[in-house]
Each structure stands twice: as C-alpha cells, then as structure tokens.
Amino acid sequence: MIELCIGNKNYSSWSMRPWVLLRQAGIAFEEVIVRFDSFDAASRFKQTVTAINPVGKVPVLLHEGLAVWDTLAIAEYLAAQDFRDFEEPYRLQR
Ligand SMILES: N[C@@H](CCC(=O)N[C@@H](CS)C(=O)NCC(=O)O)C(=O)O
Questions:
Q1: What lines the ligand 1 site, CB under 6 Å?
Q2: In terms of DSSP bridges, do strands 66-69 and 60-63 run parallel, antiparallel, or are they unpaired?
C-alpha cells in the first residue's frame, strides 16, 4: 500500500499537490497526517518527519520500502510506476 505523509490540509499546499494527483489518478493510498507544531529541530513534527525523510519536510510518499520526497519527485515516481495496470489495493473503487 502507498502511504502519503502530509502536513496540515489548510496550510500545506505542498502536501496537497501529490494528494490531489493520487486522487485524480485513482490510486488508493493511506493518508498520514503529521501535525505541524513547529519547524524547530526538537519539534514533534521534525522528529517524526526526519525519521522517514532526513530533509524533514512533507510531503513524503512511502512505497515498498522507499521514501520519496518533494512533490515533483513524487509525481515522477508515480508516473514511472503506472499504477493503472495494478490490481487492488492500488486501484480505487469508484
Ligand atoms: N519543494 C518541496 C517543498 C516542501 C515543503 O516546503 N514542505 C513544508 C510544508 S508545506 C515543510 O515540510 N516545511 C518544513 C520546514 O521548512 O522545516 C516539495 O516540493 O515538496
């Protein structure tokens, strides 16, 4: 299953870019919200995100042991996978 780690849906347009892309492409994914408390190194947000992405930023896409961050890299990664050919659980039931 694909997981997408995102921040606040109101204030993190970066997070919403791959979120919208996944939804529009009909690719099923699990949304993991990492709440923004602060961007300080000691914050819960940074501690949580740096555990999966050393740069400490969202969005981060997790798939088959890979962590892909940066919206453009996520888009390119998804395009290369062609999930449309995949069976469940990747295909959303509409
Ligand atoms: N270029 C990145 C930008 C990501 C980004 O700046 N994300 C913000 C949240 S909207 C973040 O995690 N900021 C944490 C920080 O700056 O420490 C992308 O395309 O994903």
A1: 7, 12, 14-15, 39, 56-59, 70-71
A2: antiparallel
